[in-house]
Amino acid sequence: MKFENELYLISKQYPDFNILLEKTEQALREGISIFQYRSKEKNKDLLHNEAIKIKGLCHKYNASLIINDRVDIAKEVGADGVHLGQDDTSIKEARDILGEDVIIGATAKTVEDAIRCYEEGADYLGVGALFPSPTKLDAVQIKLKTLIDIKNAVPIPIVGIGGITAKNLSKEINENVDSIAVISEIYDSKNIKDAIKKLKDAFLKGRNTMNYTTQMDAARKGIITKEMEIVAKKENMDVNVLADKIAKGTVVIPANKNHKSIDPEGVGEGLRTKINVNLGISKDSYDIDRELEKVKAAIDMKAESIMDLSNYGKTEEFRKKLIDMSSAMIGTVPVYDALGFYDKELKDITEKEFLDVVEKHGKDGVDFVTIHAGINRETANTFRRNPRLMNLVSRGGSLMFAWMQLNKKENPFYEHYDELLDICAKYDITISLGDACRPGAIADSTDASQIKELIVLGELTKRAWAKNVQVIIEGPGHMAINEIEANMLLEKKLCHGAPFYVLGPLVTDIAPGYDHITGAIGGAVAAASGADFLCYVTPAEHLRLPSIDDMKEGIIATRIAAHAGDIGKKLPNSRAWDNSMSYARQQLDWNKMFELAMDPVKAKKYRESSKPEDENSCSMCGKMCAVRNLNKVLNGEDINILRD
Hints:
The chain is of the alpha/beta class.
């Protein structure tokens, strides 16, 4: 149930129940999304019958039904929740009767009440009376300070109650409640539509309608955001379970407040493994239209993320077009953009200018940024003491290492990390802590530099979470296949369960032109061992900027790896797609096979390029097709291999 900026309507007593139904329907039609039915004086049978009618009306308009006090009625009619007064059934008893999925609200008049109700398991609090109430003359009015103290004391939604009108709402009240409960202001109005509009306008006036900074902040406050609802539906996961994982940091939803076209995705524990596509313009390959064509193809091919690695020319123009058109989440590496943005050599860029570029990307709507903050002086010294075959292969990491060397200073992203986090919180940018020391050769994997940086990233993760900033950890790189599982465990352990984003890993160094295969092998093992996010690798890796065909090959290879990893993780329903394909094959239903194929176009093209004699088989086996023959034999038919 969503409380953010919603009106909470409580029923009024009428001599004729049909009057209540008529007025309530008018209110629901105008957008009331939470309705509490309160009628303590009626006997159980009458109350039950009326609640059934009310439930039908609420569900007709997709509103949530709360029953006041009567836990038994809420249970019998399947209400969405129950609200308990201070002298009613205890929260624990109600939870035992109704189960974990039903919303339980409770009344709180003091900070002590609020903390007790929260600790006992209340999902929201009704706090008041804020004003003298015409429907409850004995209600004790609370002070504004008490409301503010309650709001600060508990992380669950607060519903302001008691005598609220469009005229008496203030900025202080609006900022300290998540919803307002009303009775007379709506039911006594001659024009319910007009009354609701005035209430909504008054409630939102002077109020930050997004009263949380980030998805993590919302989750910790008990607010279910629209992004959480979308992701929970995609993942077939209870939204409250998802919100709990976001609050802990084991799941992120990268969704900048300024990225209006995004179709949100979750990355992390218990979710499908997501894939990222790298693209962008460079000095040697500067064609904005071609890169935008790649964007469209990547989205059509179901990539959940696109990283803009542009580093030359009109990067801002390309980035803004990308964000405007992309339903996928967008990532960037701001340090790439800094040189062109300021038209300065690396050494001459100041600490503040690096941070300003991050802010610019945040304003533009970037959902996550790769920041190489782990390559601080201490990590750099570890690297110097432990020579590598390939040194540093991370472009962003090498730039920060070089800046530190040239200026004899600490990494500005490490030194000014708190300022960086403030920028991320402002726009809800997820910080992707970059792996400056990722191995670029299997000879360098799991060495002192890589592990030292990972320890620093774990420390930076906790500092980000303290400011409600969502975190992803980036990882290797080139790595022998037998080291992958241990590396996934190390990341999860050292970085406190934060989602892990890996490039590949590439399991051998000898396959230029085929590195989408080396990356897919490593990606499948990594995903099965706990990686949450795979950066695609194309056949052009190490050789050139990928063409659109290279990109398609990389996407398919990485999607295969991600799906194979999900099967290995034993995610719920991860095998359903495969089982459907197997059944279509058993039935020799070629059209269904094409429909289910990860790349239907290629599958159909291969089939049509070599027509079989028997349309129920393929040109590999012909009438010796095992599936064809077993189907016939088990059905009591002759298989007729040599005869027509």
